[in-house]
Structures are given as structure tokens and as C-alpha cells.
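Render Transcriptional regulator, LysR family in 3D.
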Amino acid sequence: MSIPPLAALRAFEAVARHLSFTRAAEELGMTQAAVSYQIRLLEERLATPLFLRKPRGIVLTETGALFARPTIDAFDMLREAYADPSADSVSTLSISTVPTFAGAWLSPRLGKFQMNHPNLAVRLETSDNLVDFGREDITVAIRAGEGGWPGVEEHCLMPIEYTPMLSPELAKKHELREPADLLNLPLLDRVDPNWAVWMREAGVDFWESPPRPGLTLSTDLHEARAALEGYGVALLTPRFFRFELATGSLIQPFPLVAQNGRSFWLVYPKGRRNRPAIRKFRAFLLDEIARDPG
């Protein structure tokens, strides 16, 4: 099959990115009827619908979703290739990441990055959801996982490591000679599978005793706050809580630090790999991590 007309692909890319004929028409400087006509031509050529009309908007069909990602990436690369080299002198870098990485590691360093690049506005958003770069106003994302996400450049930043931590006040109330002694304390977010991983590496049969009711919190930051208040033992990343460990407000009773095979990754669409703002941020992150080996 030959490549469809560029006008039809251009209309499809805009509609797929916005999931709106109206917004696509505004962006392209066309009427909504003209955009609909181009989509209809493309659907006739492919002999299949690309969008489903719903009461509250449109969604991609299975075929539409299959074609949307490479089409959006291709136009992103074209926009990057023909961009004014000086256009990045004043722009915005929008970063999306998970709350714990943002609060415990990234946000204290972003001020330094912005001061080094005063013409670059920086916006940080936190979410546990994967970013859809084609539909969200996000430049880069920092994800937690094993990598291998389609359509994006990936840079592994640091492995996810964790170890039990608790307040010195709680530790004084219990004898902690070996890891199995932790089972006598309230474990925060006990259903977290990483507890089983750490306990297994420590040689403890974690499920030997039936689990008790306890606190389940949404992020490591919340768990750390609960641990600081003496409500239980939290499973935390040491490099994220160095200050608390250094000041003694949290203690790490055992030296074992476990990993679950996941890491934090910097990701962004392949078509943006040469964008100056992304190159600057990538270099900054890698430099900061090199200074902070864990």
C-alpha cells in the first residue's frame, strides 16, 4: 500500500492527538468540515473506520490506535526537523513524574536547573499514570518500571531500592536483633509485594504468620511521614530519605537493601530527541545522578 495523501495524514494526526475535530481544525486553520472530509478519505482508503463517535466526543478505533502512534511520532519528528533553532530560547519544559520521585529527589534540584537555564520555564506535574505524549502537554516524563515502552526514548536513571525504616522511638520499644523481629511491629502497607521480596532476601518467611490489619498509604512520602510519627515500619528508598537517616529521625535497622528489577527512567517521544530543552534536562539529570551514586 502506498502512503496516503499528506493532507489526510496531517488531519488524522491532529484529530488523533486532540481527540477532537474542532481543536484539530483550529490548529490546522481549516474548517471542521474540511478535516472531516480528509478523515473520510483516509478511512475509505484504508477501508476501515479510524474513530468512533461517542455522545461525549470521539475515540480511536483499534485500527485508528494502531496508526495513531507512528503517525504522531512522524509528524513530531518533522516539526522538530523544521523548527527554528532559536525557538527554544524561551520555552517551557513540562515534566511528569511519580509523586515520590518528585518530592524526595527531583523537586529540590529543579531550582538549580532553572537557575542554570533562566530562559526555560519549568513545570512539574505528579501522577502515577503513564503519560500519553500525543494528547497531553508534557515534554518529558520520569516513569517507574522495567522499560521497553513503545514509541519513546528511554534513559535509565537509577534502580528502585528499598529497605525498612522506622522512628527511633518505635525501635526502642522493640528488640530488633534480626530481620524476623520486624514481624512483631506494625508494617506500613504490608500488602506491598516488595515486603515479601525484602523478607525473602533477608531469609524471613514473611507469610509464616497471618497478615494483620494495618495502614495502607498511597505513596512512599506518606509512609515516611507515618513512620516518622511512630505508626509503623515503612519500606523506603534510602537515597530519598538521607536527611532523615542522617539526623536520626528515621533509622535503618538492617543493612540489607533490596531491588525489585524496576528503575526510574527518563522518557520522551523519539521525535523530540534533539530538542534543546530536553538535551539540557537529560544532561542535568545524568550529571546529578553521577554526583549522587546512591
